[in-house]
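Tokens for chain A. Residues wanted.
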């Protein structure tokens, strides 16, 4: 039971309930669907749509028109969405200009050409991806017989930031030997986790890890990979990445790694926030891009995958292309919505609805991630631009629905019956005109 003034109620409800309905309606227009690799955040979005889609437009319009603070909320949401797009496009502009003018180089990198071809290739690659779709298979059942439960790996984490440290905790707990290398000095953090830290990549590679686990930001991965002293590693090393986009690292690995190295592309579809209470049932996507036939190499790859299977992850094998197609429509939209809402600085109120609580959860889920990560999702997934445009279109359509109705109501008030009269008169003139033109006698009469 919450006692408050009607005025106070309306103010709080505009920022919570009306906002929730607005976001729910925008998402509903996008026609979101469940994917085989839903993140927790994306499931929050699906819940939100479910929560609001059954309400009539009249109800929503009522929340908008009869609450004087609602218009301000639409404006704030509009501004927040614009601000986020400006951040993305401003960065694009800066990067492309830098490449064009400062280095005097032609824009030639994979990601830039994919941006320029964005819209066109999004469609062509969608068609390709539909053909590519593979049925996710249960990894757990397949490996349990083939991997020795005691097999421990020597894993070198390259990029020991937020996510690298998050993964290291579980690897170390499972008894694997964990090494780390990063441009920042993480000696203390590493020590607390029982990880050996190296500030020189040469020293790290001379330890001959069996697995190199790349946890660098999407944007820095190419630079970091190219700087690795491959010659100091064992001839057979397994390279794994955890980037939130998949085609990009796959192509990089194939392009730059010596042919005798194995390649496993993965995406644990959770993070320090969504996975803080364990990884059970959280999706782990993988693509065995190049694993040698040798029994030991196959076993090494399976031992690595087993780290996640043991924690209860839902192991989903799919191609990198298929992953990116699903992820743009789910993960990128989730991050975009989370970031837009974060800008609104939503706060818990004494009258939170369930739907509003899902919004708050969404912000919590995405707020800890760096802008680098989000920009990477946008820039390095060919499908992301199209999704951003779709969100923009959905929001604009919703505004048109609201303001169009306002327009109609006000015109009715302004012109009331006179407008109706005008229309009727116009109709009767047209009718008479038609009658006149079809009867020559009537002309005479007139
Ligand atoms: P991030 O901002 O994407 O990456 C931070 C990492 O990148 C740090 O280790 C940082 O090293 C390194 N880095 C950034 N710029 C660099 C540069 N110019 N040169 C060398 N290293 C550079 O944040 P994150 O959350 O830790 O994510 C790491 C990777 O995991 C990303 O590829 C992300 O897509 C993926 N991932 C993240 C999540 C998540 O929930 N966070 C979930 C799944 C996958 P220093 O710290 O040494 O500067």
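Reply:
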């Amino acid at each position: 039971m919450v006692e408050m003034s009607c005025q106070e109620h309306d103010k709080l409800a505009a920022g919570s309930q009306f906002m929730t309905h607005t976001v729910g309606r925008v998402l509903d227009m996008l026609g979101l669907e469940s994917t085989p690799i839903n993140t927790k955040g994306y499931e929050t979005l699906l819940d939100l749509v479910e929560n609001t889609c059954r309400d009539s437009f009249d109800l929503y319009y009522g929340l908008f028109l009869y609450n004087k603070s609602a218009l301000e909320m639409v404006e704030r949401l509009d501004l927040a969405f614009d601000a986020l797009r400006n951040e993305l496009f401003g960065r694009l502009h800066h990067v492309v200009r830098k490449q064009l003018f400062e280095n005097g180089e032609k824009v030639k990198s994979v990601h830039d050409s994919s941006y320029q071809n964005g819209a066109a290739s999004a469609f062509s690659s969608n068609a390709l991806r539909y053909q590519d779709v593979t049925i996710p298979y249960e990894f757990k059942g397949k490996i349990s017989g083939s991997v020795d439960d005691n097999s421990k790996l020597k894993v070198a984490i390259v990029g020991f930031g937020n996510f690298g440290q998050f993964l290291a905790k579980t690897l170390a707990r499972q008894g694997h030997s964990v090494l780390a290398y990063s441009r920042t000095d993480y000696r203390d953090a590493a020590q607390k986790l029982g990880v050996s830290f190296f500030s020189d990549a040469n020293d790290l590679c001379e330890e001959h890890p069996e697995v190199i686990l790349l946890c660098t930001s999407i944007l820095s991965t190419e630079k970091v990979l190219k700087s690795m002293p491959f010659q100091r590693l064992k001839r057979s090393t397994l390279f794994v990445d955890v980037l939130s986009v998949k085609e990009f690292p796959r192509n990089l690995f194939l392009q730059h790694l010596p042919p005798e190295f194995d390649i496993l592309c993965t995406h644990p579809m959770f993070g320090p926030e969504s996975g803080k209470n364990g990884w059970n049932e959280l999706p782990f996507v993988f693509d065995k891009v190049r694993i040698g036939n040798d029994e030991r190499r196959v076993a090494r790859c399976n031992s690595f995958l087993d780290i996640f299977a043991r924690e209860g992850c839902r192991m989903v094998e799919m191609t990198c292309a298929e992953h990116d197609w699903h992820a743009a429509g789910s993960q990128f939209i989730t991050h975009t919505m989370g970031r837009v809402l974060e800008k609104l600085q939503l706060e818990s109120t004494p009258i939170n609805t369930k739907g509003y609580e899902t919004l708050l959860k969404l912000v919590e889920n995405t707020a800890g991630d760096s802008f680098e990560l989000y920009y990477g999702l946008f820039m390095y997934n060919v499908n992301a631009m199209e999704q951003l445009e779709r969100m923009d279109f959905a929001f604009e359509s919703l505004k048109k629905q609201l303001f169009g109705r306002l327009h109609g109501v006000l015109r009715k008030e302004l012109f009331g019956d006179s407008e109706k009269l005008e229309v009727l008169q116009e109709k009767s003139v047209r009718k008479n005109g038609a009658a006149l033109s079809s009867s020559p006698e009537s002309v005479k009469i007139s």
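The first strand starts at residue 154 and ends at 158. Strands lie at 154-158, 177-181, 196-198, 211-214, 238-241, 262-268, 283-290, 314-317.
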